[in-house]
Amino acid sequence: MTRWRLTVEYDGGPFMGWQRQDHGPSVQQAIEDALARMTGEQAVVHAAGRTDAGVHALAMSAHVDIVKALTPHRLREGSNALVRPLPVSVLEVAEVADDWHARFSCTGRRYLYRIRNRRAPPALDAGKVWHIAVPLDVAAMQAGAALLVGRHDFTTFRSAHCQSESPVKTLDRLEVARVGDEIHVHAAARSFLHHQVRSMVGCLAMVGRGQWRAEDMARALEAKDRAALGLNAPPQGLYFVEAIYPES
Amino acid sequence: MTRWRLTVEYDGGPFMGWQRQDHGPSVQQAIEDALARMTGEQAVVHAAGRTDAGVHALAMSAHVDIVKALTPHRLREGSNALVRPLPVSVLEVAEVADDWHARFSCTGRRYLYRIRNRRAPPALDAGKVWHIAVPLDVAAMQAGAALLVGRHDFTTFRSAHCQSESPVKTLDRLEVARVGDEIHVHAAARSFLHHQVRSMVGCLAMVGRGQWRAEDMARALEAKDRAALGLNAPPQGLYFVEAIYPES
């Protein structure tokens, strides 16, 4: 048996999310089915993050145990040929130690949120950005974002379905930058609560619109109450960027 | 009657091309139908370039004559609301002189061609790039591209269906640059022959693969023969970037 690390890009649009579901297609199922056709084995694929329906990944890390002897090249090429036409692509494959775990060995996760901030709706990037037509105040958004960085109880920014044991997380980075007609929000932490990034971005958008002041981000955080949440940003603007591991 | 200039972004994927066709959807028809629903008028929309099936536009310029009194704001918002769910977006609207013509007033056209040059196929940008899995030699491609710049008979790089009176064109710019895991080819000229950019990019890809030497680009040009063409690049990597006008 070999434990393989997979680095995977996917368009979250047609999926119910990463995790296998009874009621619709998932990224996990797409990869597991492709591997099963290649190996004859029903192996479970574990990911660093279980992204929601519609959320994309530029480079998700995952692992899988396979008995059949394979080269990294054959595993990647075979997966990509068999997963078609679903929008999933195995970028890299590497053999890892038997105790390496995509989720539990992961020490850092990075997300990008893309807001297309212009009057006209997106045509080329439909389903890949959150469209906000009114001009946003990026400086105010950045000021608000800075108030969330650090170790806090993020109960306000946590989904009711969150399975994390504790609402206390350390947010290492939350930065807002204008890139052409887009606004990018960069978030990094060891781990996030369910819906945390989308909840933070939703509130930052309220700051950008002038409906909230930057200081209202701190007020929402201190409330430790989901009812203090301004808005949950939609999934299609969110990208899982990278999973970080001690050895990588 | 007012002549309006429209700047339009579109995803070429679902269309037979810019120009209205009997046998399938076109960008022109999508916009004309939206305008007809808004105004009750059957106005023809003229574009700076008639892109092929599958070719995208970041900012196509077009014009249309409308009798009904409209503000630029209402024309843009109404078009974008009525063209949905087709992936077409009117970015800007401006009133222009009655003798301004999107095609005949245009003095420069810019295209971008995107090659995704990595082993794994694209998932997030499927239908938006040409995927070439083998590593391409960008320096050789750039050397080959430089040989085409200037005033030449581009018969080799011209489609059999080209309606241009002369195969002689002046290519102002043809540059190849690596951007992350993509290779971008930038092309600019007053006007292009039908399939010229895709034909040039197809040959440059042969140079990048080492199947042609850079000098073979000059040999193909001098042959003035379509049979000397190496390869026509597929449409989905091509973007109409900008139309240039004397006053803009």
Automatic annotation (TrEMBL), chains A, B:
Record-annotated membrane-spanning stretches: none
BP-aspect Gene Ontology terms: tRNA pseudouridine synthesis
Pseudouridine synthase I TruA alpha/beta domain ranges (all copies): 8-104, 145-246
Residues binding substrate: Y111
Top-rank taxon, per record: Bacteria
Name assigned to this protein: tRNA pseudouridine synthase A
Complex formation: Homodimer.
Annotated CDD domains: PseudoU_synth_EcTruA
Family affiliation: Belongs to the tRNA pseudouridine synthase TruA family.
Source organism of the structure: Sphingomonas lutea
Keyword list, A-Z: Isomerase, tRNA processing
SUPFAM superfamilies for the chain: Pseudouridine synthase
Family annotation (InterPro entries): PsdUridine_synth_cat_dom_sf, PsdUridine_synth_TruA, PsdUridine_synth_TruA_a/b_dom, PsdUridine_synth_TruA_C, TruA/RsuA/RluB/E/F_N
Gene3D superfamilies linked to this entry: Pseudouridine synthase I, catalytic domain, C-terminal subdomain, Pseudouridine synthase I, catalytic domain, N-terminal subdomain
Family annotation (NCBIfam families): hisT_truA
HAMAP family: TruA
